[in-house]
Specification:
Growth Hormone, Chain: A; Alpha-Beta Plaits; 3-stranded antiparallel sheet; mainly alpha; single chain; 18 helices; 3 domains; 3 strands
Length: 457
């Protein structure tokens, strides 16, 4: 068997955790396109409170994301994942049992406390070898993108067929399935492997939150999710005004999402292969600015609204895929896990601001106020995008070192090799992290260099 072929344990870990992630995200995203149309019928509901019901999930996630990641180091990955899913189930049941918007707000807040993303990534790292971790992460990323696409189509269909309360029961059932997958399909890790590429490190937080380029990327994902949430707070009511009944919205989302994915995927591949990520990034922000201007000028025109929605989904899908890659490229060697943790927290804060601010604006000013707010956000983002540095197209690799190799001057030796840009060794962790240009040198070549160095020493 090739050392790079995934073992059964790695396959079960990748597929199992990908399914866990997808089931939970499906439950989260299905609510997004329907809460403003069906939630407004709840007792005590207003546009402001409906927006809070959408955004409060992000507040809970932002508060608990990093602490739960730290707790999983102490109490174990699976216990924290299962506990988080149980909290998500409790929140879903609370929302399912209520007829009041305040009950839905409480339920959504409880759902958000089950912030398991960091624990899932850490368990994946424990169960996969370094050479296969990227493959496993790719599967998780694909499952995330597909889940979002499926959820915004399924949400309106299920809610029309069964009702809002029943949707929350279904969401709770999906989380139960995720627990069963965690218990019976995902392998248990016999040891905890400290991997700075996937885990939050307390001592690294200060460095990450003061890094200028990472700050711009974190603000970018915050802006992106403000636009996402505020758009899905406003667009469903706009679709109703131009003649699409709530139960027909899935047709609009299905068609526009399929076209968006077909356009965004080759553009993403082009940006990565041709190393044009900054240009595509700026173009995306400009596209989303134009989209918000189109939304503002809709004036109940079906074609303007649908064109704007299509362009928005193209830009969103591109950005959602590019930003994690840019964070990975921009983070210093050995800081990627912490950088991704702060990035995810910024994403959740964007959800919270998008829900709360847009709900209030929609209730007090109307849809045009929301789109004007989005334009102001996007203008600031567009200006900031020009100040983003072109990323170095480097990959991070981690190697486990034996004690015999740690004492040799490895860092200086490796830095002299073409394609290697930075090396960081942690003797107490028996780990080495290297930033490389994957077009020049790969893991197998570095392993050969290490072997020859050890033999000579």
């Amino acid at each position: 068997m090739s050392d790079h072929k995934m073992t059964p344990v790695e396959l079960y870990a990748s597929w199992g955790l990908g399914i866990v992630f997808a089931l939970r995200m499906l439950g989260m995203f299905m609510v997004l396109p329907i809460l403003t149309t069906y939630g407004i019928e709840l007792k005590g509901a207003t546009e402001t409170l409906t927006g809070i019901a959408i955004g409060i999930y992000g507040i809970s996630q932002a508060i608990f994301q990093i602490p739960i990641g730290f707790l999983s180091d102490r109490f174990g990955r699976k216990p924290l994942i299962i506990s988080g899913l149980c909290l998500f189930i409790i929140g879903s049941v609370v929302a399912a049992l209520t007829q009041s918007i305040w009950g839905v707000i409480l339920g959504r807040a409880l759902q958000g406390t089950g912030a398991i993303a960091a624990a899932v990534m850490a368990l994946l790292s424990d169960l996969t070898r370094e050479q296969n971790y990227t493959k496993a992460m790719t599967f998780i990323g694909i499952s995330f993108g597909l889940t979002f696409s499926i959820a915004i189509v399924l949400g309106p269909v299920i809610t029309h067929m069964f009702g809002l309360q029943e949707l929350f029961w279904i969401i709770a059932f999906l989380a139960v399935l995720a627990i069963l997958v965690t218990l019976f399909i995902v392998p248990s890790a016999s040891t905890h492997v400290l991997n700075r590429e996937s885990e939050l490190i307390k001592s690294d937080l200060r460095h990450v939150i003061t890094d200028g380029n990472l700050i711009k990327l974190n603000l970018s994902v915050l802006c992106l999710h403000i636009l996402l949430i505020s758009s899905f707070i406003t667009i469903p009511t706009q679709l109703i005004q131009i003649g699409f009944l709530a139960h027909e919205h899935w047709k609009v989302y299905l068609c526009t999402m399929l076209i968006a994915l077909a356009i965004a995927t080759p553009l993403l591949i082009y940006a990565e292969i041709k190393r044009q990520m900054k240009n595509i990034f700026i173009s995306c922000v400009g596209l989303m600015l134009g989209t918000e201007i189109l939304f503002l000028a809709t004036n109940n025109s079906m074609w303007i609204l649908l064109t704007g929605l299509e362009l928005f989904l193209i830009g969103f899908n591109l950005m959602e895929a590019m930003l994690p890659s840019l964070v990975s490229k921009a983070s210093n060697v050995g800081y990627k896990g912490t950088a991704m943790g702060v990035y995810t927290t910024s994403q959740c804060i964007g959800v919270a601001i998008g829900g709360g601010a847009s709900g209030w604006i929609l209730g007090h000013i109307g849809p045009h106020g929301v789109f004007a707010f989005n334009i102001s956000i996007t203008l600031a983002w567009f200006w900031m995008s020009f100040r983003l540095h072109e990323p170095m197209y480097l990959s991070s690799l981690r190697f486990t070192l034996k004690s015999a190799t740690i004492n040799s001057p490895l860092a200086a030796y490796l830095k002299k090799k073409e394609g290697i840009f930075d090396v960081l060794i942690f003797p107490e962790e028996h780990s080495m992290y290297i930033k490389v240009d994957p077009k020049v040198i790969g893991r197998s070549e570095i392993e050969k260099l290490l072997s020859s160095k050890i033999c000579r020493d």
